[in-house]
Write a structure and sequence with these properties.
With about 475 residues, this protein is α/β, with parallel strands linked by helices. About 35% of the residues lie in helices and about 20% in strands. It is globular, with a radius of gyration of 24 Å. The termini are far apart.
């Protein structure tokens, strides 16, 4: 099967950090179908050889294990081309159409790795140039809009030119191996399903923490913030994976139907819950790994009086039969105490204690997403060191490290998702109604913050965020997992 992959934003940050390395790994693993051609598109005036040299230079910055040898890169570079385009000029799309039509590939993937403001322009011009044929698939990166209205506008424009089955709204968290194993854990094993409900689970915590700041993306982050950047997409998709009902089969729409039900079941916000159950923060200067780092307002491209949030913690509930009354906590932020993405399922303690153990000690399941990838099951076991110890319980841990079990050369998130696009598999991509429902749920927070004079709470870089985050979860009698 021959295919063309067109990367709009072919010289941009996402292309060289994520997309090109992922495509090379697929090429190295032999999973990139033969007959591939990758066309980078950008404003730069580059020849094909100059573009290949640029990509080669960027590859020198990836992890050593993923860096191509000279021979590997030479073979990979043979499928790379470059086309200079101004995406706002209709005439430039005619040149793209001529390039694609001259080859007549079996399928064409248009990957729009640009600013969201260009999504509608690109789709309109693809339609006007006759490049929206049935063999075309379009990939849209997040964020898809900055509120419900803009998201609806983008989706409405896309639907004018492409059918839903041609549109791949990408959320790379859904391609992570650990998230794939979350689906396998829930729906491929009988062990946890009887326990996966309100009678046995006390609370569920979702943490996506980064120790990095905004780096060179200050101007972008000023218009985005943590809620739009992480909660509306990544965190809510993880919540759906944890909270959804078993789908009737593994087909894309069966899975996405169940995720949509979760989003529609989230408790709506009130003024009281917006005040009590949501914490927004912004990092101040502090220390990360022994190095002093500046505060957010001191970063390049950031307004010195900015109220943009770099941290969000919230409490919500899924108002349905399975989860009624179980709190779900979401927390994400930059410049936190570590790089750590995980889901913690805390089970209820035994109804009657017969051992000398601390009140409240209970079991938990930890699903590690990054940097570690695997599962931890925290149990209680009886100590045997002496007679006195045998009357008490101590915490023990069963640890499954997926990298050790399955090898470090596992398929990365973008590699998996790009191959799914090429094969036309929609299971790991977000449907438009899912996306709109997520925006509908987060929008009251955006509206509330727009008129909230208090602004974000400051927290020192290198900590776990504002103390109000711990106070929020403590009101329910719980604590964040690292505080346990």
């Amino acid at each position: 099967m021959s295919f063309d992959l067109v990367l709009f934003g072919g010289t941009g940050d996402l292309t060289w950090r994520k997309l090109m390395p992922a495509l090379f790994q697929a090429f190295r693993h032999g999973t990139l179908p033969e007959g591939a051609r990758i066309i980078g598109v950008g404003r730069d005036k580059l020849s094909n050889d100059e573009y290949r040299d640029l990509i080669k230079t960027r590859f020198e910055k990836v992890d050593l294990a993923k860096r191509p040898s000279a021979d590997e890169f030479a073979r990979f570079a043979a499928i790379l081309e470059f086309l200079s385009m101004d995406l706002s000029k209709p005439g430039d799309y005619a040149a793209l159409a001529a390039t694609l039509n001259a080859r007549g590939a079996d399928s064409v993937v248009m990957y729009v790795a640009t600013a969201p403001a260009l999504f509608t322009t690109v789709c309109e011009q693809l339609g006007a140039s006759g490049l929206n044929t049935p063999k075309t698939r379009v990939v849209l990166e997040k964020p898809l809009g900055n509120d419900l209205a803009s998201n609806r506008n983008i989706n409405a424009t896309v639907r004018r030119f492409f059918e839903e089955k041609q549109v791949f709204r990408i959320d790379h968290y859904l391609g992570k191996p650990a998230v794939q194993n979350l689906f396998a854990l829930r729906f491929g094993n009988a062990l946890f399903e009887p326990l996966w409900r309100r009678e046995h689970i006390a609370n569920i915590q979702i943490t996506i923490a980064e120790d990095l700041g905004v780096e060179s993306r200050g101007a972008f982050y000023e218009t985005t913030g943590a809620l739009r950047d992480m909660v509306q997409n990544h965190a809510l998709q993880l919540l759906c994976a944890i909270g959804m009902e078993p789908p009737i089969n593994s087909h894309a729409d069966a899975i996405r139907d169940e995720k949509l039900k979760v989003l529609r079941s989230l408790k709506p916000w009130t003024r009281e819950t917006l005040t009590q159950d949501v914490v927004r923060g912004q990092y101040a200067s502090g220390t990360i790994n022994g190095t002093k780092v500046p505060g957010y307002r001191e970063e390049a491209g950031v307004n010195p009086a900015s109220n943009t949030e770099t941290f969000v913690a919230l409490r919500t509930e899924i108002a349905n039969w399975r989860w009624a009354g179980v709190p779900f906590y979401i927390r994400t932020g930059k410049r936190l105490a570590g790089r750590d993405a995980r889901i913690v399922v805390n089970f209820r303690p035994t109804p009657h204690a017969i051992f000398n153990s601390n009140v409240g000690m209970a079991n938990s399941l930890v699903i590690n997403l990054q940097p570690k990838d695997g599962l931890e099951l925290h149990l209680l076991a009886q100590g045997q060191a002496n007679r006195k110890a045998s009357q008490s319980l101590a915490p023990v841990q069963l640890d499954l490290d997926f990298d050790k079990r399955f090898g470090s050369e596992r398929v990365g998130a973008y590699e998996r998702l790009l191959l799914d696009v090429i094969d036309g598999r929609l299971n790991l991509f977000v449907r438009s109604d899912e996306q709109e429902e997520a925006w509908r749920w987060v929008e009251p927070m955006l509206d509330y913050w727009a008129v909230d004079a208090q602004g974000p709470r400051l927290y020192a870089a290198g900590t776990w965020g504002p103390s109000a985050s711990s106070a929020m979860i403590a009101r329910d009698g719980f604590c964040w997992s690292e505080e346990a």
